[in-house]
Every structure is written in C-alpha cells, then in structure tokens.
Here is the input.
Amino acid sequence: MQQAFHTRNYSIRDFEEWDKRGELLLQPKFQRRDVWTDKARSYLIDTILRGKPIPKVYMRQDVNPKTRHVRREIVDGQQRLRTVLNFLKDGFKISKSHHPTFGGKTFSGLDPSTQGDILKYEFVVDLLQDMPDNEVYNVFARINTYSEKLKAQELRNAKWFGDFKSCVYQLAEEFTTFFIENGIITEKAVLRMAEAEHISDLLLAMNEGVQAGSKTVLDNAYKKYDDTFPSRATHEKRFRETIDTIKAIFGSDLQSSAFRPVRLFYPLFCAIYHFKFGLPKLRTHRSSFKVADYPKMKTALEYVDGLLEQIEDNNNTPSGLSLVADDKAFYSAYRVHWVHADNRTTLTDYICRKLSKALGN
Here is the structure.
C-alpha cells in the first residue's frame, strides 16, 4: 500500500509568499465557490487570533522538471485562504462582536506582535503530490462517504457568524465542563454541539421568555440576532450568575438530581433566572432570596426528586397515587411533549411555586 497523501503544517506566511510568487492557485476547480459574508471572514480571523484549530486544507502540488516551477493548487480550503490573504492586505476589519480587543481593526492596525502571531499560525495541510484530477475527485468522494449528516446546531454554526452565535459559543467555552460533569450534556453530544444548542435555548428564554424547543425557533433566533444581540454583555453576566446560583444551591448533588436532564434543567434555569432578574412574559410571582435561603430552596427542589421517584415506582403513572392537581399537571408536562412552550411554562411555573412556598411567600 502506498499512501496517496502526506500531512504537513504550513504557516500563513508560507501561503502569502507562494501567492506573491504566483505559485498558489486558488481557482475553484474542484468545488463550487461559496461567497463568504464579512461576518464569516471575521470569525475565521478571530479563530486564528485565539489560536484555535481550523479544518485542514487539501493542496495538490507538482513541480515542472524543466522550469523547476512549483504549482500549489488548493482543492479544498480556498475560501479560508482567500479570506486570510485578503485580511493581510487590509481587505476587511475584524468584527467587534467577535473580538472586543481587536474589533474594528484591519491587519495593519494590529500591533506587530499580534501581526507576527497571525503570520506564524499554521494550517494543517494534506498534500496530494502530483495527483491527477481523477484521483483527486476519488479522494473527495471517499471523504464524503464517511461524512455524517449535520445536526441542526452544526448547520447553524456553519451558517451564522454574528453576535448571537458569538455569545453562545463564548458561554459554551466557559460552561461545557459544568454541563458534562453534571451529566446535563454527554461528552458525545458535545461533539455534535449539543451544549451550544442548549445555551442558545436558555439565552433566547432570557431575552424573549419561555419558547418552544424547536429547530425553527432557534434558526429564527440566529437569523434575527445575527447583526446585534441586544444587551449581550448583560445576558452573559446574568447567565453566569444564574448558573453560579444553581451550583451553589445543589453543590455536588446536581449530577444525581432529577434536574440534571435538559428537560428539567431548562425550567430550573428559567425559574432561578426569573427570581433573580425577571423572565420576560412569565407572570409567576417573583420571590427574593439570599444565600442563607439556599438550603430551603434545595429541599423544595428535592421534592421533585421524590415525586418522580414515587411515580416511577408506580409503573410511571400517577394513577392511583394521592397527588394534588398541581403535581399531576407538572408530571403531565414533564412526561409528554416537554419541549412545547406551554409545557415548558407549566414546568417553570411549578418550580417557581415550590421555591416561593419554601421561601415563605
């Protein structure tokens, strides 16, 4: 077996030099040329500035033995390299929503140290040495054979690059470990961006009130808030404070609590947020609380654990149990169609009432 490619690392400075010498071919011969938005271009540069990885580039290379001229043809990764080379020529500015420090600046507006870091950034390149067209087509056919269908959040990530997405992924970077350690999101699900989708859902609730957990709702939010996500800094601060409050109330017991799954973590987050800051459109009474109240609040939330355990022991049906109407309504919303907006509101209201009672309100 002879390997048909070799993996190399090449810096942005390498590509810039090849481009200046006329050795770099960026014509979209093998793939259609997508037109990137300014937001997409800025997001790529922000990724480089933060030292994060970028998908690999496929480059075919051959040498003319007579002229010694080297030809380097980009067969996948053209837009990435066009974007980078354009930025080096001050073709566009970094968005402030992507990078608060460097937002509004072109390459020449950056300090020399940062410019140097960009030029030294390395792309991972699969080098297709002297490979004819038919073999290149075969390589990509095989790669696409093993590609999984993208999930909804992965599609949003590929389409949108604005303020809402930046906010979501900033918080995801901070809280993914929390979600994994408490079993709210699995490590496998994180690989398909489930944590970003969950955070998107929570941010939308903070901004507009309880919403249905649907693809359409989140797709519309990414579109609506792509240019500007109002009060972004406030939302980020309040998101952190709400998560910190939940952590303080539960301690290490969240991972074994009934509130660990997303179906109950969502209304729990909404209820705590409502008490602290007020959730839009939720008419439920808000009760103030302090750190000394956390044990009482935890006891109230543990009631839900006991309720669900009791129903589970009764073959997952409340029939025959002496439950009050409020508990039955809660379980009905929890058990069936829990992503519907009405049921999410029912769950949130129920948790708020339990907490209010514990707080003496």
About this structure: The mean pLDDT is 92.
